[in-house]
Design goal:
Blueprint (H helix, E strand, L loop, with lengths): L1 H14 L1 H7 L10 E2 L3 E8 L6 E5 L11 E11 L7 H11 L4 H14 L6 H4 L4 E10 L24 E5 L7 E3 L8
Parallel strand pairs: 2-4
Antiparallel strand pairs: 1-2, 3-6, 4-5, 5-7
Helix pairs in contact: 1-2, 1-3, 2-4
Length: 186
């Protein structure tokens, strides 16, 4: 949901829907969810009520690309019966953006399939209604909360296969680049 929200509400208005779809690399196992030559964006959603807490999958996920910057998009959601958003509504919105772009529409559907989305389950997707509580785009710099391989003086300890951890963005408001799509500048 969060990647599709970022694609349709934040990125497509900035770079156009075709370019936005071409940057969506998360479903294909890329390190960051959206990638371009000079900018990558990692996208996370949370339904946590006590704070803006996100699960990070691995030491590399919040390492900037070799050339360019890394940004972090945080989407806080609340599941509620009166919520205006469902996954299938968001997919339909993305498809409408690509209505006149056949190749990009095919690429979008391929990415959806790769992510595990199936039109056969749309009625199930429609049972979860979401309200957007908070969204923000952060600059990932040295004081952004994260663990990276560079933090281990002698390298990652031998025998460590994977690291998963949680970050809390409550004290990171000074790193917000944009609190609304209209504030985003690429």
């Amino acid at each position: 949901f969060a990647e599709l929200w970022f694609l349709s509400v934040w990125l497509a208005p900035q770079v156009g829907p075709v370019e936005a779809v071409s940057r969506w690399r998360g479903p294909f196992g890329a390190r960051h969810d959206f990638e371009s030559q000079l900018l990558s964006v990692e996208v996370k959603a949370t339904t946590a009520n006590r704070a803006v807490i996100h699960h990070i999958n691995g030491l590399e996920q919040l390492v900037p690309p070799e050339h360019g910057a890394l940004q972090f998009f945080s989407l806080r959601l609340h599941e509620e019966g009166g919520g205006a958003n469902t996954l299938s509504i968001l997919v339909a919105k993305c498809r409408a953006l690509l209505d006149t772009h056949a190749e990009a529409a095919i690429a979008f559907d391929n990415a959806l399939a790769e992510a595990g989305y199936s039109p056969m389950h749309e009625s199930d997707y429609d049972t979860i209604h979401l309200r957007i509580v908070e969204e923000a785009l952060y600059r990932v710099v040295d004081n952004f909360p994260r663990i990276t391989p560079a933090m281990f003086k002698d390298g990652v300890p031998s025998g460590i296969e994977s690291v998963k951890y949680e970050i809390n963005l409550a004290g990171s408001s000074h790193l917000i680049i944009a609190a609304a799509p209209a504030d985003m500048q690429l």
